[in-house]
Amino acid sequence: MAEKKAYTQAFRTGKYDKVSGLLGKYDNVRKYWEDQVTGIYLRPFLNNLVEKKRNRLERLRILDLGCGSGDGYDLIMGVTRKDPGIYEYVTATITDDMLKEYVGMDINADLLRQAQEYYASNPKMKFVEGDLSHGLPPEILEGQPPFDFYFASFGTLSHFHDDQCVRIIADICRHAPEYALFMGDWLGRYSYEWQDLWHHPVNQEYFIDYRISYLSPEGEEKGTGLASFPLRLITKDELMKIIEQASQEAGVETAPLTFCDRSIFVGRHLDTGDYNKNCPRLRLPVNSLFESHQRTDLESLLVDYVPRRGFDHLNNFFELFFMSCNALVKYTISLLSEYDSEEGKLRSAPEVLPFYPDPLKEAMHNMQRVIEGVGWLEWGDVRANVIEPHLAYSLRRLEIALQPGTGMGHGLVGIFEIKK
Ligand SMILES: C[S@@+](CC[C@H](N)C(=O)[O-])C[C@H]1O[C@@H](n2cnc3c(N)ncnc32)[C@H](O)[C@@H]1O
To answer: Whose CA is nearest to atom 11 of ligand 1?
Structure first.
């Protein structure tokens, strides 16, 4: 039967599957929070790099270390120009005509096969199998011309001991042209997700026994049969030592451009509670905020932070951070309850107190403007489709504004320039 064949063909493409942003590796938080935040931090430096290349009539070559399924390509190509207004259609920093080549490198042949399948139609993308354990592998060092951007994302560098990272980065310094960017990404030492592990001394490398348990469906016995592997938890100071040593070994100048604690509010292991049983289960409700046509119980975003005795400096940071997030969520709940749908107006708005941190004040004012601006719209579900995503972006903005870039989130990202 022709119908049966047609539906079977559609099913086999894998594109007939129900796609949800609520769970899985590519959940809404990964796409709209984590990838975007990384891009926001990269933006000024990538803009500058593209400008330099354009002025020399050259195009960019990018190396993605530990590329997995090649997700770094979409992240990098999704970075936007400085201040795109709402009129522009093309907002990318690296437009297709400015990319010469993207090379993805990983040790895992299954992931590389998946990457090759996804990006088979893109002639500028190439995937290479290689092992980073002893520095850049010969497939790159000897097999590839220099790159303008050396990129390792989402905890890839936590797979290695510090001396291995030194070798990788020293090799990058040697391999790079006269100017290049390097972005490294480790797991942060002091994420609330792994509060049980905070006590490990910082004068020793510390590796967490990591499980990808967040992919296990609800109800399945947690962790059963899941392989675990060691991942390095790191602080900014430890990271700087690695960079300085690599720079010295290679005899090449490097300079830190910025650091970022990514996913303080939404780390993957908040929902598993594997390393802190007091963790708030925030990832699912934040995924729900981003999801169209789905309303979220906003109360489920409130965090009852449990301090750990003996870690005052960390407790102080998390108290202020989570109390600010809670204040914004509560403010939003109050505004929604005070919105008169018949009149299309707010009856009243709670006070924004003068001593709140500025980013919180700004987020509250903006939330009020958004609710007043769209609350009266009748088409679609304006709460689920506009107000809730805006709350997610506001929490994301608050995280960006309050993070110290020292190792307080799931990820610690450092961006560096290499100059010869
Ligand atoms: C946390 S994943 C990040 C994957 C991807 N960059 C992303 O954005 O999701 C870490 C990646 O590092 C790779 N990796 C681990 N050890 C490696 C090694 N010795 N050499 C090269 N890649 C390695 C893994 O196979 C995995 O794809």
So the answer is: 66
